[in-house]
Write a structure and sequence with these properties.
It is built from 9 helices and 18 strands. The protein is an alpha+beta fold and 327 residues long. The termini are close together. One of its GO terms (cellular component) is cytosol.
C-alpha cells in the first residue's frame, strides 16, 4: 500500500467475448473486481492451483475498457502469482489450455431430512484457488462439512463418484454418474455431484478417474453436527493475509510443525520437508506450502498457536489489517 484507505474486492463473471480474443487461453482462477483509492495499491498476490512447471505459464489478465491487457508476473511462487499494478480494475489469472493436472478441492455441503425436504449431500469439484467462503455464501441452507479436501484433478478429464454407507436403501440416488472436471472459477458454484435420500450415519466417498484410478477417498460422519458456518474464516484469512510478514518473523516453525503432525494434519513426508530446510524463512515457506495443500483447518490451528504464544505479534498485525497503511 502507498496510502491509507480501504480496498474491497468481489468475484465477477469472465466475459466470454474477451476470452474468445485470447485463443488457447482459459481462466486459471476467479476474476476479481478490485476497488480502492487511486494509486493506493501497487502489488497484488493471486492464489493459483498449478503444480510442477505449469506455474511458469501463468499470466494475469487485466480487463479495462472492454479490452484485455496481458501482464507478465513479477514473481510466481508455489502458491501465488505476484504482479505490480498501476490502477485498479478487474484482474484474473489465465493459463494456456492444456491437459495437465491442477491442485483441486472437494467441498461437501449437507442438508438433513425434514418434513418437507429430502436429505441431500452435495459434492463440489473445484480448483484449489476458489475461496471456500465464496462457495458457502451460495449454499447457506446447507451445512459445510470440513474435511481434508485437497486432490489433483485434470481439466476436461472424466471422473466418477462412488459411495458406501452403513444403511442400504433403494431410495438413495447419486447423480450424475460421471462428470467432466472443468476449471469452475465462478462467480456461480453449482454442485458437481449430489446424493439424495441419505439415511446412513456414515458414508465413504470415493472419487476416481473414469478408467478406475482413485484420486480422493474420505470417510464422512453425518451424525456429528457439521459446521453450519466455516469456523476458520477469520483465523485462516489472517494467516493468508500476513503470509510474507510471518515468513520473515515467525520464530518457531518446528513448534507448529510438531503440533500439526501430532494432530495428523500433515504427513510425515511434509514434516521432513519442513525440517530439512536450512533457514527459518525457508522452513516457513515450506510450511505454507503444506498449509495450502491440507486446507483451512490447519491454517486456523496455526492462528490458534499464534494467539496463544505470540499474542503481541497477532495484535500488531491485526492493527495493520484494520487500516491499510504503507509498509
Amino acid at each position: 500500500m502507498e496510502s491509507e484507505g480501504e480496498v474491497k474486492y468481489r468475484i465477477i463473471s469472465w466475459d466470454n467475448k474477451l476470452l474468445n480474443n485470447l485463443p488457447q487461453k482459459e481462466p486459471a482462477g476467479p476474476l476479481y473486481n478490485i476497488d480502492g483509492p487511486e494509486g493506493s495499491v501497487r502489488r497484488l498476490h493471486f492464489p493459483h492451483c498449478e503444480i510442477g512447471k505449469g506455474k511458469e505459464k501463468l499470466t494475469v489478465a487485466h480487463v479495462a475498457d472492454g479490452k484485455v491487457e496481458i501482464i507478465q508476473p513479477q514473481t510466481v511462487t508455489d502458491t501465488h502469482v505476484i504482479i505490480n499494478i498501476q490502477s485498479l480494475s478487474p484482474f484474473g489469472l489465465i493459463f494456456p489450455r492444456s491437459e495437465t493436472s491442477i491442485r483441486a478441492q472437494v467441498l461437501l455441503f449437507y442438508k438433513k431430512k425434514t418434513e418437507h425436504c429430502k436429505s441431500k449431500l452435495n459434492i463440489h469439484l473445484l480448483p484449489a484457488n476458489v475461496p471456500v467462503k465464496e462457495v458457502q455464501k451460495q449454499h447457506k441452507s446447507y451445512t459445510y462439512i470440513d474435511t481434508t479436501s485437497t486432490c489433483d484433478l485434470t481439466p476436461r478429464r472424466k471422473y466418477r463418484l462412488r459411495y458406501t454407507n452403513t444403511v442400504n436403501t433403494d431410495n438413495t440416488v447419486l447423480q450424475p454418474k460421471v462428470v467432466k472436471f472443468q476449471r469452475d472459477c465462478g462467480p456461480n458454484y453449482h454442485p458437481t455431484f449430489e446424493i439424495l435420500n441419505i439415511e446412513a450415519a456414515e458414508v465413504t466417498l470415493i472419487l476416481s478417474e473414469k478408467k478406475g484410478k482413485e484420486v480422493w477417498t474420505r470417510f464422512v460422519d453425518l451424525i456429528t453436527e457439521p459446521n453450519s458456518t466455516i469456523p476458520d474464516i477469520a483465523g485462516a484469512d489472517f494467516v493468508d493475509e500476513h503470509r510474507e510478514t510471518l515468513i520473515q518473523r515467525f520464530p518457531s516453525v518446528m513448534e507448529f510443525a510438531d503440533c500439526l503432525i501430532g494432530k495428523n494434519m500433515i504427513s510425515t513426508e511434509m514434516y521432513e520437508n519442513i525440517k530439512a530446510k536450512s533457514t527459518p524463512q525457508d522452513k516457513m515457506r515450506e510450511l505454507y506450502t503444506c498449509l495450502d495443500s491440507v486446507g483451512r483447518a490447519a491454517k486456523q490451528e496455526f492462528h490458534n498457536i499464534l494467539e496463544m504464544n505470540y499474542s503481541c505479534l497477532v495484535s500488531e498485525l491485526g492493527e495493520l489489517s484494520v487500516h491499510l497503511v504503507n509498509t
